[in-house]
Amino acid sequence: MGDPTAAASWLERNVVECLPKGGLALLLSTVAKEGRPLRVKLGIDPTAPDIHLGFSVVLGKLREFQELGHTVVLIIGDWTAKVGDPSGRSGSRPQLSSEEIEANAETFAAQAKLVLLEEQLEIRRNGEWLDMPLEKLFEILRTTTVAQVTDRDDISKRLKEGSPVSVLELLYPILQGYDSVAVSADVELGGTDQHFNLLLGRDLQRAFGQPEQIAMELPILTGTDGVKKMSKSIGNYIGVTESPAEIYGKTMSIPDTALEEWCRLLLDVSLDGSIGPRDAKRALASALVERFHGEGTGIAAQADFDSRFIENELPTDATAFEFAGDGEGMVHVPALVAAAYGVSRSEARRNIEEGAIRLNGERMEGLDHSAETLAGGVLQRGKKRDARLLVLGNSSQSA
RNA sequence: GGGGGGAUGUCCGAGUGGUUAAAGGAGACGGGCUGUAAACCCGUUGGCUCUGCCUACGCAGGUUCGAAUCCUGCUCCCCCCA
Which nucleotide has the least CA–C1' distance to A301? Predict the structure, then answer.
């Protein structure tokens, strides 16, 4: 991969836009001559505790840069998280406490290392430079006009329809742009929703007399619902640290329409048209489990899944749940279900009426059962729910 | 500083004195069908010691036989003018 043009086109696989056009190849040949690696920046907001598959698409691209010998600068936006990115938002973000941000930052750094090579990785917090005197902030803010920051779609739309836009939100892209100045970024990656922010980074760099970074925009992965972008807050995500069963199961539940995209973006392969969507999905799910849990885990997850959902066998991995009778040796099932699954008794009662509660695969009827018939049984709530192995305890009441 | 608008269940959003636990939609959950897909159909969606009781329509009072709906005060939010 010594040829800059070849390297650039390899890196631009699956990339939606890389601006300015042809800039990456040019830059690669320049740094090759200078004999230095590129500094490739990615900023992440520690607003959610887990890295999900959508984010792993961007991380995967960073990894490719590393494989060509370049340096990744991962910026944990502990300070900008206090501002809140307005990108693609229709309203302001909820505020997080410093403690939450700090905790998220920790796990982010740890999880990012699952994908990235540590030797060529620089992890920074933007509080390092954004915790600045007001005077310095003024200097930065002077570089950008109101028209620039209100020009972007989402903000102008909100202004037009009379929705609130706080001054703080307008600051966000400017501060993110200054991150690029602070770390002297050569390239910045981001999702397509980062278009504006990535380009404003170039403006900031120019204002501070630096060469302008390449803006590389990656596609945004669709979530498990097949409609919206994968996001923690929507709940349609798969976390990279989730269990094999979760990763496998959630992948199987994606709509067929998302299958092609997932294969391309996550596995870097095109969809195998010779097999049916069901089998393609099985292969995808299995491969994803292997990626995050290691060799052999995909097959195991598949076998487990098949026996549980296709052959309808009782799950073998039921977590134990200790319960107690009421002294007469009877157990009030709604209370049991409520305690076992952390739902209200009313909901548990409804579940029983709906036939969602099973004991050893059989639907439960009636609200009270004797402790003996329940002991040692496998309790299930809905088909997808974790099972509970009921263990008769001797505590006075069932939790 | 002035004027106007608003706060309803997970979310959106009806409702302006009386069967209102609160229309409708979304989402979610459960069931059926299936490939745990989609589509489709059915049901559920505040809590509980459940033929009943309790709690709920920003907060606190008040009027009334009866209030989410009327009155008073407060808090928060938005818009416009200056």
Answer: B36
**Could you tell me which residues are beta bridge partners of residue A44?**
A76
Tokens standing for A106? 């920790």
Ordered by start, the domain boundaries in chain A are 4-218, 223-317, 318-399
A4-218 belongs to which homologous superfamily? Answer: HUPs (3.40.50.620)
Task: Select A318-399's CATH number: 3.60.110.10, 3.10.290.10, 1.10.630.10, 3.40.640.10.
Answer: 3.10.290.10
Instruction: Report if CB A144 to strand B is under 7 Å.
Output: no
pLDDT digits (tens, 9 = 90+) for A320-331: 888 877 667 788
pTM for the predicted model, two decimal places? 0.80
For the stretch A353-373, what's the b/e string if a residue is b when 16 or more beta carbons lie within 10 angstroms of its beta carbon?
A: eeebbbbeeeebeebebebee
Cα A300 to Cα A285, A292, A294, A296, distances in angstroms: 12, 14, 11, 7
**Tens-digit pLDDT profile for residues A52-111:** 898 889 999 999 999 999 999 999 988 887 766 655 554 445 556 677 778 888 888 888
The ipTM, to two decimals, is: 0.81
Measuring from the CA of residue A312 to each C1', which nucleotide is nearest?
Answer: B36
Q: Nucleotides on strand B with an atom closer than 7 A to protein CB?
A: 28-32, 35-38, 43-50, 77-80
| Highest mean pLDDT out of A105-109, A115-119, A215-219 | A215-219
